[in-house]
Amino acid sequence: MSHKVTPESPIGIFDSGIGGLTVVKAVQAALPQEKIIYFGDTARVPYGPKSQVTIRKYAADDTAILMRYQPKMIIVACNTVSALAFDVVEKACGTIPVIGVLKAGARLAVQATKNNRIGVIGTQATICSNAYAATINRLDPETQVFSKACPLFVPLAEEGMIDHPATKLIAADYLREFEANGIDTLVLGCTHYPILRRIIEETLCPAIRIIDSAEAIALRTRELLEESGMLNNTGEHASPHLMVSDLPQKFSRIYKLFMGSELPDVELVEV
Amino acid sequence: MSHKVTPESPIGIFDSGIGGLTVVKAVQAALPQEKIIYFGDTARVPYGPKSQVTIRKYAADDTAILMRYQPKMIIVACNTVSALAFDVVEKACGTIPVIGVLKAGARLAVQATKNNRIGVIGTQATICSNAYAATINRLDPETQVFSKACPLFVPLAEEGMIDHPATKLIAADYLREFEANGIDTLVLGCTHYPILRRIIEETLCPAIRIIDSAEAIALRTRELLEESGMLNNTGEHASPHLMVSDLPQKFSRIYKLFMGSELPDVELVEV
Question: What is the pTM of this model?
Fold first, then answer.
């Protein structure tokens, strides 16, 4: 083991930016006694359009920042890193377990579907990488995956336009094709999308089950900690320790939108 | 002079990303005989939310990349650099003249307004910097400036949603306040916005004059080259020489949207 861990050790979570806060919120809700350390690489966001070499270097940096806190596990809340650099994180973590949003969302979707038709929405980079479809098909080769990039959902979520008529029109455009292809399960394959969940639900046929990868990873985290006897039963609910590589003006507004509470102290970390 | 220039020397243009292509298009239309070298720092876009120290370093890098081509002038097509690091570019250029979108747009707006009430729209970072208002007020302290950030216009332009009903709803929301404050001139203070010009015009009262900072800088470029005897009267119309620091998947689609022609060869430059 790379360092000694106890049930009281923190859980480290990172993302390319602030989207991973939906993962922090879901883990906190599922496991309120756990200490959480979050790093958002806000100086270098977005990772999606960058080259794989660059993304792998960034993933190593992000992991190193969290490892200073001797976490008992690492959650990769970034779909791009989950898809293209998961092995880099695993290597840097030694025997500390690592889980990623991509596989957690894919697993839960495969468990949920009854007709083996799963939809996936995400950023252009995530959808083009085909990582969700590949992961779902490794878990169940019989399942058909229908993917759709929804590039405006991130800026709409960040602007807090969670019930604007324009967002409804754009959601209707993006999600129309899922009516025709008869999916019964839709994966929100981007950590920003839970913010728009209500509009997505209202747009889709009500029979479609929505898989929020933030919730999926929270479930998986609980399972893993239980299995390894590392669940913290004595901790007290505390704000996550937040680190970012740049502090954008809108950070405090977005934190409130994503987390539903005021921004606590934030540590600025150089990358 | 930092290097010997002739009328045949190229014009160097840079931006933090691809928005500056609207400037390339406007300069090309106004001065079809000029050679244009463009650098878009697509690996490090957006500059707006970054710290001033970082932006100044990037501005120096961008200028150095263009200076390798011994240009006769440099156009700063990036509003953030125009606002926060113009002096860095000037210093790196020696006696080569430098002009920026911000001042060119502000000058033309001040010339155009009859009632001394000017509106400015731009990204969150540009509007928060207050740079347009400050520049307009240095040119004419009597003019009142009304500024509004329109953060969704960049992603809507990049998605090519130039006549989507959702874009109309969002434009109506953003531009509503300009009805009340009686402006007669509106500056498009972001190089992406000319892509949405038609929707912006349809949303505003028809009497409002729109100042496209890309067109403003093309006019200013012609003036400067004429004054200095550096106008190229013998060159042949050619595609711009394009350099980027990363090649996003959507680059070719966006190039076509911005320039109205197929993407020529692009050189990848390390930053």
Answer: 0.89
